[in-house]
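Field log, afternoon session.

UNIT: design team B
ACTIVITY: writing a sequence onto a fixed backbone
BACKBONE:
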Protein backbone atom coordinates (compact mmCIF):
# COMPACT_ATOMS: atom_id res chain seq x y z
CA UNK A 1 0.00 0.00 0.00
CA UNK A 2 1.41 3.38 -1.01
CA UNK A 3 1.15 5.92 1.79
CA UNK A 4 -0.32 9.21 0.65
CA UNK A 5 0.73 12.45 2.32
CA UNK A 6 -2.04 14.57 3.81
CA UNK A 7 -2.31 18.10 2.46
CA UNK A 8 -4.55 20.79 3.88
CA UNK A 9 -5.54 23.92 1.99
CA UNK A 10 -7.69 26.80 3.13
CA UNK A 11 -9.65 29.58 1.52
CA UNK A 12 -11.63 32.39 3.13
CA UNK A 13 -14.87 33.67 1.67
CA UNK A 14 -16.31 36.48 3.77
CA UNK A 15 -16.99 35.16 7.26
CA UNK A 16 -16.58 31.52 6.21
CA UNK A 17 -13.31 29.58 6.09
CA UNK A 18 -13.15 26.49 3.90
CA UNK A 19 -10.49 24.00 5.00
CA UNK A 20 -9.95 21.10 2.60
CA UNK A 21 -8.10 17.92 3.57
CA UNK A 22 -6.70 15.84 0.72
CA UNK A 23 -5.35 12.40 1.58
CA UNK A 24 -5.49 10.19 4.66
CA UNK A 25 -5.92 12.16 7.87
CA UNK A 26 -3.13 10.76 10.02
CA UNK A 27 0.33 11.67 11.37
CA UNK A 28 1.22 13.31 8.04
CA UNK A 29 -1.34 16.09 8.60
CA UNK A 30 0.06 19.55 9.25
CA UNK A 31 -0.32 21.06 12.70
CA UNK A 32 -3.95 21.90 13.47
CA UNK A 33 -2.82 25.08 15.21
CA UNK A 34 -1.02 26.26 12.06
CA UNK A 35 -3.98 25.38 9.83
CA UNK A 36 -6.36 27.39 12.02
CA UNK A 37 -3.90 30.29 12.25
CA UNK A 38 -3.75 30.46 8.45
CA UNK A 39 -7.44 29.81 7.73
CA UNK A 40 -9.32 31.77 10.38
CA UNK A 41 -9.51 35.55 10.24
CA UNK A 42 -10.75 37.75 13.14
CA UNK A 43 -14.22 38.08 11.54
CA UNK A 44 -14.59 34.38 10.65
CA UNK A 45 -17.73 32.82 12.14
CA UNK A 46 -17.98 29.48 10.34
CA UNK A 47 -15.29 26.96 9.40
CA UNK A 48 -16.16 24.20 6.97
CA UNK A 49 -13.80 21.25 7.15
CA UNK A 50 -14.11 19.34 3.87
CA UNK A 51 -13.15 15.67 4.22
CA UNK A 52 -14.60 14.69 0.81
CA UNK A 53 -11.12 13.77 -0.49
CA UNK A 54 -10.08 11.96 2.68
CA UNK A 55 -10.33 8.20 2.11
CA UNK A 56 -9.52 7.25 5.69
CA UNK A 57 -8.70 8.68 9.09
CA UNK A 58 -7.12 6.94 12.06
CA UNK A 59 -6.82 7.80 15.76
CA UNK A 60 -4.23 10.48 14.96
CA UNK A 61 -6.72 11.98 12.51
CA UNK A 62 -9.43 11.99 15.18
CA UNK A 63 -7.00 13.73 17.55
CA UNK A 64 -6.29 16.29 14.81
CA UNK A 65 -10.01 16.93 14.32
CA UNK A 66 -10.48 17.42 18.05
CA UNK A 67 -7.56 19.84 18.13
CA UNK A 68 -9.09 21.83 15.26
CA UNK A 69 -12.41 21.97 17.11
CA UNK A 70 -10.77 23.05 20.35
CA UNK A 71 -8.82 25.79 18.52
CA UNK A 72 -12.00 27.15 16.89
CA UNK A 73 -14.37 27.04 19.85
CA UNK A 74 -12.75 29.82 21.96
CA UNK A 75 -12.68 32.07 18.87
CA UNK A 76 -16.46 31.73 18.50
CA UNK A 77 -16.14 29.88 15.19
CA UNK A 78 -18.69 27.14 14.48
CA UNK A 79 -17.33 24.02 12.80
CA UNK A 80 -19.13 22.13 10.05
CA UNK A 81 -17.58 18.88 8.86
CA UNK A 82 -18.26 17.48 5.38
CA UNK A 83 -17.93 13.71 4.95
CA UNK A 84 -19.77 12.01 2.08
CA UNK A 85 -22.69 9.78 3.04
CA UNK A 86 -21.85 6.11 3.32
CA UNK A 87 -18.09 6.70 3.22
CA UNK A 88 -15.55 5.27 5.65
CA UNK A 89 -14.79 8.67 7.18
CA UNK A 90 -18.43 9.41 7.91
CA UNK A 91 -18.95 5.95 9.43
CA UNK A 92 -15.91 6.43 11.69
CA UNK A 93 -17.06 9.89 12.79
CA UNK A 94 -20.55 8.60 13.60
CA UNK A 95 -19.15 5.57 15.41
CA UNK A 96 -16.99 7.87 17.55
CA UNK A 97 -20.10 10.08 18.07
CA UNK A 98 -18.33 13.08 16.58
CA UNK A 99 -21.66 14.08 15.04
CA UNK A 100 -22.83 14.89 18.59
CA UNK A 101 -20.29 17.73 18.94
CA UNK A 102 -20.14 19.22 15.43
CA UNK A 103 -22.51 19.58 12.52
CA UNK A 104 -21.69 16.63 10.23
CA UNK A 105 -22.91 17.10 6.64
CA UNK A 106 -22.81 15.09 3.41
CA UNK A 107 -21.70 17.73 0.90
CA UNK A 108 -20.17 21.18 0.57
CA UNK A 109 -23.50 22.44 -0.74
CA UNK A 110 -25.16 21.25 2.50
CA UNK A 111 -22.42 22.92 4.56
CA UNK A 112 -22.85 26.28 2.84
CA UNK A 113 -26.64 25.94 2.95
CA UNK A 114 -26.83 25.03 6.65
CA UNK A 115 -28.21 28.27 7.99
CA UNK A 116 -28.44 29.96 11.33
CA UNK A 117 -31.89 28.59 12.06
CA UNK A 118 -30.80 24.98 11.71
CA UNK A 119 -27.65 25.54 13.77
CA UNK A 120 -29.48 27.25 16.63
CA UNK A 121 -32.24 24.64 16.55
CA UNK A 122 -29.59 21.93 16.98
CA UNK A 123 -27.87 23.92 19.75
CA UNK A 124 -31.14 24.35 21.63
CA UNK A 125 -31.85 20.62 21.42
CA UNK A 126 -28.41 19.81 22.84
CA UNK A 127 -28.55 22.23 25.79
CA UNK A 128 -28.33 20.63 29.19
CA UNK A 129 -31.35 20.94 31.38
CA UNK A 130 -31.43 21.15 35.12
CA UNK A 131 -33.60 19.29 37.62
CA UNK A 132 -37.09 18.46 36.39
CA UNK A 133 -36.06 19.49 32.88
CA UNK A 134 -35.90 23.22 33.63
CA UNK A 135 -33.38 24.92 31.36
CA UNK A 136 -30.81 27.12 33.04
CA UNK A 137 -31.10 25.51 36.46
CA UNK A 138 -27.77 24.59 37.98
CA UNK A 139 -26.83 22.53 40.99
CA UNK A 140 -23.86 23.60 43.07
CA UNK A 141 -21.33 21.07 44.28
CA UNK A 142 -21.82 22.09 47.91
CA UNK A 143 -24.19 20.08 49.93
Amino acid sequence: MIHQTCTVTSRVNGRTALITVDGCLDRTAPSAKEVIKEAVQPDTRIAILDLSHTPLLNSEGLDWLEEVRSQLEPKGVRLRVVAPAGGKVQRILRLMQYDKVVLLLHSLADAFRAGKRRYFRLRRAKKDTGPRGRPGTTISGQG
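LOG NOTE: The beta strands are 7-13, 16-22, 46-53, 78-82, 103-105.
NEXT ACTIVITY: expression trials, pending approval
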